């Protein structure tokens, strides 16, 4: 019989021992071998309930050759007599996968709250129900490593596993007793020394506690003391250093990804993971280790997020003598919850929406806001950490805090409670701000890239923040960039454009009300050529113009109205956009070059393939966003997320209030998409087409005509004056079966220009007329009808008559030859025969043309004979 044992690390905690139990429950032939040292509370539990548990102590181990060893809650197998090079090693752990694993090992490693959770999940799948003692030990394993499900690293899987164990009679009171096990006299004495020597140090805005002490005669574990110290100080980082005989024991804990205690412990010869680690440091003194640790922390701790990263610039400020009613209007218009009240650069207080609402309800609308504001001078600087901001908000209760420039003390921005919560919510996942500099330099032609860098340098010199925003950034991340980009300036866009024109030529046109400017580039200007510094310069690669827009915010006076705008920050500018995936911005100026701004979760939605609006009123503000949502969804292969879909369905009636020009503009853009058919299918399924006009058709037949229109390649023999526009053909085959009156209603709803409306109606009429013609219809009759309609209407009718081969052939023949057939005799010939000009000319020449078309004459001689006959008969009639 093969020998399979399960073991764990020394100084085992509940997660380690419970995981061993989980392995044994799945295979009771396994020998669960306890380490020599257990944490004090674990040892107490095993001593009390040992008879109900399967564990073997190391002294009871019959040293036999080990065929297989399962190692839990660590990735370093202990040295056990009986192991050899042939022993199979399998690891089960919840710490990050290390880089010291040997070839031939197998493992099950997932980063969740506790290793025990992995085993409990397998027990559930296998239908194995542990008894009360076993369930309680397994629950202790999860609770100890997750802080009773309260630590940030806890996952829903840990919670579900804990619930299952409680359902299987795990004793919560018993678990609580052992999690809060009383300290021994030796532990209590050491704990008091650690408290006395504990020092709180600020590293990059993070609070780190270093506690030191001598162990004396204590031989028990000290991790319990670390837990208690963390409860007292609630730091972001904790290091407990205990001097023993010839070594220093380090226990480290962290609550933030900005401090990876595992990597710190590794530098001292220990290990662990980013939130919990330990090291045994031999041959060094306590003071030496402490000094070394503090130096390493300075190097290792990542800078905390700063106010600059989350603030909004150019805040709206109120003066103390402004009326409460004026503040109420601003709050309604822009949706802000509070405004700083400032006079001559000094912050006097904060005006909140709650205060304004209460004042308005008491009829105080004409009173100055000074009466109801929350007085105080609470500010932060750009370099302050968000931890400092958090403390400030908690202390003063301000949900909006002004940001001052450190030198000038001018109010340059504002940071809100929402900004803070979003930042805190992402701290555990925080990475260095992503940069797209390399992507940008790969995507753009060299000339455009150099031009962009030239603009960025000028923006930096003017201290303007410069961004590329919107679809360009989205597509750059997706790996499908365009070469055209929109530039947003957090500052003076018109001033930046004028500065560029002064340096590099060209001219600027601007619209000061909207803060927009267009720089018409003079591609051969000497200064520009010198600045671009290109060996092989191609002026054709430069854009003819560059558009600059000052960052702004929008207000919609009522649903579906066009927005009113005013200057704002880049954050507010991005918030006015349609979908989160279009709120990404790429900063270009100075040291920020290439940095990605993602205030509204657009990056996450890009990764997860999701179309999501920024707020619940988005479709009410602009119902055409519903059409854009479907267009983007199908183009990118994404999905409109559930809440956005609900909002879309609720807003369908609002499309009726949108102008025809705006809806037609969106449809024209849809017609340009490669995924046109899928977009139209989705528009039909969601009821958007019916919301535009109830008579807009979309069915299998219309879809088939779209397919034909998209595939059209007119033969050269048709001799078209010009190939019909794609949009015209699609509208024509879409409406062709409609009654002309109904088609006219839709054309008017979509505000078709006159020529487009007339030619769409023409194809509807033509479709009905030709459908009445039979196979025996003379060619001349076809020609008389076809002559009445524009060329592109005939092409659209040909596309729509797929089931009528004879009629399609007639249109083909007309386009290729029939329309060019005319008699050789003209008006001059009739004049020579003594006929006076008049209606008879048209009748005679028409009859001669009909004869040619119908095959009654085949040569000029026969034509002359027919003319003579016609004149003779006319003379007799006369």
Round the mean pLDDT to the nearest integer and report it. Answer: 87
Helix percent reads: 40-55%
Structural class: alpha/beta
Alpha carbon gap, first and last residue: 127 Å
Q: Which consecutive residue ranges, at least 5 long each, have pLDDT under 50?
A: 555-564
Whole-number radius of gyration?
Answer: 40 Å
Number of strands: 29
Anisotropy-based shape: elongated
The main pleated sheet reads as: 7 strands, mixed
Strand content: 15-25%
Number of helices: 38
Strand order of the largest sheet: 21-22-23-20-19-26-27
In short:
With 878 residues, the protein is α/β, with parallel strands linked by helices. It is 45% helix and 15% strand.
Describe the structure.
Helix content is 45%, strand content 15%. It is an alpha/beta fold and 878 residues long. The longest helix is centred in the last third of the chain and has 18 residues. The N and C termini lie far apart (127 Å). About 1% of the residues have low confidence.
């Amino acid at each position: 019989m093969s020998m399979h044992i399960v073991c764990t690390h020394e100084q085992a905690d509940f997660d380690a021992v419970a995981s061993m139990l989980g392995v044994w429950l799945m295979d009771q032939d396994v020998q669960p071998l306890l380490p020599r040292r257990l944490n004090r509370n674990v040892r107490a539990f095993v001593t009390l309930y040992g008879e109900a548990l399967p564990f073997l102590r190391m002294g009871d181990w019959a040293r036999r050759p080990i065929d297989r060893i399962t190692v839990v809650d660590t990735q370093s197998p202990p040295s056990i007599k009986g192991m050899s090079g042939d022993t199979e090693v399998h690891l089960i752990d919840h710490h990050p996968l290390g880089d010291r694993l040997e070839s031939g090992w197998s493992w099950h490693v997932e980063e969740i709250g506790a290793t025990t959770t992995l085993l409990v999940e397998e027990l559930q799948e296998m239908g194995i129900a542990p008894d009360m003692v076993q369930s309680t030990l397994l629950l202790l394993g999860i609770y100890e490593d997750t802080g009773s499900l309260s630590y940030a690293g806890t996952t829903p899987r840990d919670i579900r596993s804990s619930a299952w164990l409680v359902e299987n009679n795990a004793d919560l009171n018993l678990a609580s007793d052992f999690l809060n096990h009383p300290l021994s006299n030796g532990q209590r004495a050491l704990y008091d020394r650690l408290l006395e020597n504990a020092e709180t140090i600020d590293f990059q805005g993070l609070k780190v506690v270093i506690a030191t002490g001598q162990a004396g005669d204590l031989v028990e574990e000290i991790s319990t003391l670390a837990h208690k110290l963390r409860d007292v100080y609630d730091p972001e980082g904790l290091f407990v250093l205990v001097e023993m005989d010839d070594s220093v024991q380090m226990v480290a804990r962290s609550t933030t990804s900005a401090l990876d205690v595992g990597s710190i412990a590794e530098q001292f010869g220990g290990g662990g993971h980013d939130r919990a680690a330990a090291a045994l440091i031999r041959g060094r003194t306590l003071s030496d280790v402490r000094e070394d640790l503090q130096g390493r922390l300075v190097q290792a701790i990542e800078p905390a997020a700063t106010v600059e990263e989350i603030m909004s610039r150019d805040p709206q400020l109120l003066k103390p003598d402004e009326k409460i009613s004026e503040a109420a209007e601003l709050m309604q218009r822009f949706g802000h919850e509070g405004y700083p009240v400032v006079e001559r650069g000094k912050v006097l207080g904060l005006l909140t929406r709650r205060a304004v609402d209460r004042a308005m309800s008491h009829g105080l609308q004409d009173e100055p806001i000074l009466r109801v504001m929350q007085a105080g001078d609470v500010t932060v600087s750009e370099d302050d950490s968000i931890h400092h901001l958090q403390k400030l908000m908690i202390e003063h209760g301000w949900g909006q805090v002004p940001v001052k420039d450190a030198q000038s003390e001018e109010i340059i921005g504002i940071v809100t409670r929402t900004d803070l919560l979003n930042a805190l919510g992402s701290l555990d996942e925080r990475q260095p701000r992503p940069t797209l500099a390399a992507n940008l330099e790969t995507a753009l032609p060299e000339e455009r890239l150099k031009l962009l860098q030239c603009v960025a340098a000028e923006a930096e010199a003017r201290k303007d923040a410069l961004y590329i925003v919107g679809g360009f950034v989205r597509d750059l991340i997706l790996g499908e960039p365009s070469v055209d980009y929109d530039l947003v300036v957090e500052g003076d866009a018109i001033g930046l454009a004028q500065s560029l024109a002064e340096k590099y030529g060209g001219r600027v046109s601007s619209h000061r009300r909207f803060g927009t400017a267009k720089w018409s580039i003079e591609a051969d200007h000497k200064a520009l050529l010198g600045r671009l510094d290109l060996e092989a310069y191609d002026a054709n690669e430069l854009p003819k113009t560059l558009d600059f827009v000052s960052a702004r915010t929008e207000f919609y006076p009522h649903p579906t109205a066009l927005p009113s705008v005013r200057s704002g920050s880049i954050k507010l500018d991005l918030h006015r956009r349609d979908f989160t995936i279009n709120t990404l911005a790429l900063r270009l100026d100075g040291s920020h070059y290439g940095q990605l701004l993602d205030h509204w979760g657009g990056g996450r939605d890009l990764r997860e393939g999701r179309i999501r609006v920024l707020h619940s009123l988005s479709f009410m503000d602009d119902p055409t966003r519903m059409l854009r949502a479907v267009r983007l969804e199908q183009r990118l292969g994404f999905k409109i997320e559930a809440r956005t879909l609900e909002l879309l369905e609720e807003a369908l009636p609002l499309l009726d209030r949108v102008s025809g020009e705006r809806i037609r503009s969106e449809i024209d853009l849809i017609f340009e998409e490669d995924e046109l058919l899928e977009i139209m299918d989705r528009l039909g399924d969601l009821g958007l087409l019916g919301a535009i006009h109830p008579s807009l058709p979309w069915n299998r037949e219309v879809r088939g005509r779209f397919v034909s229109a998209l595939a059209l390649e007119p033969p050269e023999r048709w001799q078209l004056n010009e190939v019909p526009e794609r949009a015209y053909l699609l509208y024509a085959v879409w409406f062709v079966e409609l009654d002309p009156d109904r088609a006219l209603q839709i054309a008017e709803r979509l505000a078709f220009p006159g020529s487009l409306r007339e030619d769409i109606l023409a194809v509807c009429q033509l479709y009905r007329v030709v459908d009445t013609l039979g196979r025996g219809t003379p060619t001349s009759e076809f020609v008389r009808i076809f002559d009445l309609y524009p060329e592109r209407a005939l092409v659209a009718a040909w596309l729509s008559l797929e089931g009528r081969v004879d009629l399609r052939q007639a249109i083909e023949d007309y386009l290729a030859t029939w329309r060019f057939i005319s008699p050789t005799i003209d008006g001059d010939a009739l004049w020579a025969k003594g006929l006076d000009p008049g209606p008879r000319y048209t009748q005679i020449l028409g009859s001669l043309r009909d004869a040619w078309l119908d095959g009654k004459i085949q040569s000029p001689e026969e034509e002359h004979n027919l003319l003579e006959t016609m004149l003779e008969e006319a003379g007799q009639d006369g």
